[in-house]
């Protein structure tokens, strides 16, 4: 409940507010009275351009690297001349906004005898034209010695002013600034394919299908760890080029380590496809040389922005050998340590219902109550949660399975058999329906504190 102010309290607050306002106003005039007369116009923001930015249809930017001409076509920027590169439309919009409404901080000099000292021997020139025929043309010079602003003048007036440093940076773009520097300029949700090759070895290749979602096709077929994949996708779409080293055909890629790249990153989003090659680390140890396949432009990029370059195959996989939903299974046979355990699952009468009846070796688990049912589900979870420890695709697998788990599904007569053949005393090769999966699992998945045997022993305490 809000407590209402009394009339006396409101009156007192108004008096206090009035005193504060008078104090601030007095302080302003006191401070201003000590400002030298010649510097008083620092406090006056004078506007030297005033165009409706929504009506701008032409933008011309000229700097030491060339002249870049852009035209609006149905609210979309198109490059008319100046190069053949992907440009940053947000940057063009920002330049347009700032050139159409320039407020100066200070008048520096009228009709200067030596404009070169302000950087106007080689200024950056920007012209914006509206559909009404109005024009704003400015020249941007150097940053001021205090680095608090930039020198600027209108092409219609020889007077030199200063503007805010942030505006000066926007209005003095290089060719690199005009380029779209994103490796893949989409959202992470738009990406449909991602693959990584490291030192010539395929680490993973994953793709998204409409009905079944993400899956791995290389180096083995597997589900995908969506937490790690989403982190990788977000990293990818945020990755930006730092600078361009060579914009013409590069003669010697070995100079940058791009003849045999350390990493090859491939991605797709709709019709967009990119293949990023990453080579040597630059001398500053903060950037890596890169190149997009199909071009010969060498650039630098901060590899830390792509934070999954050293990820392993196992980390991208969901790691499961076989993990069916509990009520899609009618029975399970587990052979381990020379013993056989049989589980039986009867789903509830209503589809999707979480109840049902559970049996272990013909013992009715459900009759033992909720804690026993929970132990049964824990045991089931331990069976389907046997996870990959490593990938060993070309292993010469031989010998007899030491552990087997056979699932009989509730619909149809499908049977899936998962077997584990010892690799050594600490690991097993994982087989599925008689074929080696390429996956190696740890012995702890079965005999560790949270493994299959421990879960079985906890369940059997009720019988």
Question: What does this entry look like structurally?
Answer:
The chain has 463 residues and is of the alpha+beta class. The protein has three domains: 46-178, Sandwich (Immunoglobulin-like), CATH 2.60.40; 188-316, Sandwich (Immunoglobulin-like), CATH 2.60.40; 326-460, no CATH class. The chain is built from nine helices and 27 strands. A hairpin with a 3-residue loop joins strand 12 and strand 13.
What's the gist of this structure?
The chain is α+β, with helices and mostly antiparallel strands and 463 residues long. The protein is 20% helix and 36% strand.
Present the secondary structure layout:
Blueprint: H1 7-33, E1 46-47, E2 56-63, E3 66-73, E4 76-81, H2 89-100, E5 103-104, E6 106-109, E7 124-130, E8 135-143, E9 149-154, E10 160-164, H3 165-170, H4 175-178, E11 193-198, E12 201-209, E13 213-218, H5 226-238, E14 241-246, E15 263-269, E16 272-281, E17 288-292, E18 298-301, H6 313-316, E19 329-336, E20 339-347, E21 356-360, E22 363-364, H7 370-384, E23 390-391, E24 403-409, E25 415-422, E26 427-432, E27 435-442, H8 444-447, H9 452-460
Antiparallel strand pairs: 1-5, 2-3, 2-7, 3-4, 6-10, 7-8, 8-9, 9-10, 11-12, 11-15, 12-13, 14-18, 15-16, 16-17, 17-18, 19-20, 19-24, 20-21, 21-22, 23-27, 24-25, 25-26, 26-27
Helix pairs in contact: 7-9
């Amino acid at each position: 409940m809000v407590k209402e102010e009394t009339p006396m309290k409101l009156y007192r607050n108004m008096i206090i507010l009035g005193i504060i306002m008078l104090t601030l106003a007095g302080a302003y005039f006191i401070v201003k009275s000590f400002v030298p007369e010649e510097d008083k116009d620092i406090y006056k923001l004078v506007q030297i351009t005033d165009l409706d930015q929504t009506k701008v249809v032409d933008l011309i930017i000229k700097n030491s690297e060339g002249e870049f001409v852009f035209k609006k076509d149905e609210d979309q920027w198109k490059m008319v001349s100046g190069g053949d590169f992907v440009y940053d439309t947000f940057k063009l919009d920002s330049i347009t906004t700032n050139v159409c409404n320039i407020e100066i901080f200070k008048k520096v000099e009228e009709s200067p005898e030596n404009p070169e000292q302000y950087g106007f021997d080689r200024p950056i020139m920007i012209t914006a034209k509206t559909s009404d025929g109005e024009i704003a043309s400015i020249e941007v010079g150097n940053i001021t010695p205090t680095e608090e602003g930039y020198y600027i003048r209108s092409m219609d007036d020889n007077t030199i002013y200063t503007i805010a440093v942030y505006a000066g940076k926007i209005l003095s773009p290089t060719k690199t600034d005009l380029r779209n520097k994103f490796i893949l300029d989409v959202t992470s949700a738009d990406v449909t394919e991602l693959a990584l090759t490291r030192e010539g070895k395929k680490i993973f290749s994953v793709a998204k299908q409409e009905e079944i979602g993400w899956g791995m096709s290389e180096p083995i077929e597997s589900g995908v760890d969506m937490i790690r994949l989403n982190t990788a996708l977000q990293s990818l779409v945020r990755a930006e080029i730092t600078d361009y080293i060579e914009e013409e055909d590069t003669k010697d890629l070995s100079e940058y380590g791009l003849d045999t790249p350390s990493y090859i990153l491939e991605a797709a989003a709709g019709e967009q496809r990119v293949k990023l090659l990453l080579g040597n680390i630059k001398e500053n140890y903060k950037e890596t040389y890169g190149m997009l396949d199909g071009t010969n432009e060498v650039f630098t990029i901060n590899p830390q922005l792509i934070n999954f370059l050293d990820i392993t195959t196992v980390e991208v996989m969901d790691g499961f050998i076989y993990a069916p939903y509990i009520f899609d299974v009618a029975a399970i046979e587990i052979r381990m340590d020379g013993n056989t355990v049989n589980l039986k699952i009867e789903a509830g009468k209503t589809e999707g219902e979480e109840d049902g009846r559970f049996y272990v070796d013909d013992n009715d688990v459900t009759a033992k109550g909720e804690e026993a049912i929970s132990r049964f589900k824990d045991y089931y979870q331990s069976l389907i949660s046997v996870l990959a420890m490593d990938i060993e695709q070309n292993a010469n697998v031989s010998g007899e399975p030491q552990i087997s788990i056979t699932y009989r599904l509730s619909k149809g007569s499908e049977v899936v058999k998962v077997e584990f053949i010892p690799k050594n005393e600490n690991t097993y090769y994982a087989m599925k329906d008689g074929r080696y999966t390429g996956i190696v699992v740890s012995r702890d998945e079965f005999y560790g504190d949270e493994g299959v045997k421990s879960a079985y022993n906890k369940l059997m305490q009720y019988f």
